[in-house]
Automatic annotation (TrEMBL):
The lineage of its organism: Bacteria, Candidatus Yonathiibacteriota. Pfam families: N_methyl (PF07963). The chain crosses the membrane at residues 12-37. This is Type II secretion system protein GspG C-terminal domain-containing protein. Keywords: Membrane, Transmembrane, Transmembrane helix. It comes from Candidatus Yonathbacteria bacterium RIFCSPHIGHO2_02_FULL_44_14. NCBIfam families: IV_pilin_GFxxxE.
Length: 238
């Protein structure tokens, strides 16, 4: 009789203790899964992958423009905004560094230890991605035979600038580490270019997978691409 009653009780479902044990196990597994997957880091890694892809796309597009144009202009229609050969302290005036962020950057001054006299340039949000020379990179890709090799000029996945530059030593002073955007500059002699970006994920900024350390550039703080990776300063300025 006792055995039959016990069977009936078991047929009625789980006991409270059993349910608590199952819930505890599920909670522990959920926490472990979140720690392993780390969705925030996964998003940072995804954005970094986009940044690396964007800069690769622009390097290819700019290279095609240089080889397909008899008189290429990497800085407006006269290349005056381009630096002279990197290392000189008296570049062409007015030298420009172009930013993908639509935030106005008012600082004009020297850029880091190289003492480049440089002015920051950004354009309005509506024009950022235009390929006709009025986008944030002032190159007229539309002038190529067959049209632009890219449908738009990419911008950083976050593309925000917090702070407004400093009064000395370039653009890092006053700009928050939470800022993420691309920048571009060119050199007039010879006609070359550089683009760089800030990476945010540990997957691409630590150990053997640190893209900043293996890009061939002169700045371990930023990911750099281009035909001359010494145009932009080697310090922490951005």
């Amino acid at each position: 009789m006792t055995s039959m009653n016990f069977k009936k009780e078991r047929d009625g479902g789980f006991t409270l203790l059993e349910l608590l044990i199952v819930i505890s196990i599920i909670a522990i597994l959920s926490v472990a899964l979140v720690l392993v997957l780390n969705p925030a880091e996964a998003l940072r890694k995804s954005r970094d992958a986009q940044r690396i892809s964007d800069l690769s796309t622009m390097k290819t597009a700019l290279g095609l423009y240089l080889t397909s144009t008899s008189t290429p202009y990497l800085g407006l229609t006269n290349n005056l905004p381009c630096f002279l050969t990197p290392g000189l302290t008296a570049p062409v005036t007015p030298t420009k560094i172009y930013y993908s962020s639509p935030t106005s950057i008012t600082h004009t001054g020297l850029m880091g230890a190289s003492a480049y006299a440089a002015a920051a340039v950004s354009v309005g949000a509506a024009n950022l991605s235009l390929t006709d020379g009025t986008g944030w990179i002032p190159v007229n890709f539309d002038s190529l035979i067959g049209g632009s090799p890219i449908s738009n000029i990419p911008v950083d996945p976050i593309n925000t600038l917090n702070g407004n530059g400093g009064t000395t030593d370039g653009y890092a002073t006053g700009i928050s580490p939470a800022s993420y955007f691309y920048r571009y500059a060119c050199s007039a002699t010879p006609l070359t270019f550089e683009m760089n970006a800030i990476l945010e994920s540990s997957a691409y900024t630590t150990g053997a997978d640190d893209k900043r350390a293996s890009d061939g550039g002169n700045n371990a703080s930023f990911y750099e691409v281009g035909t001359n990776l010494k145009i932009l300063d080697a310090g922490t300025d951005f």
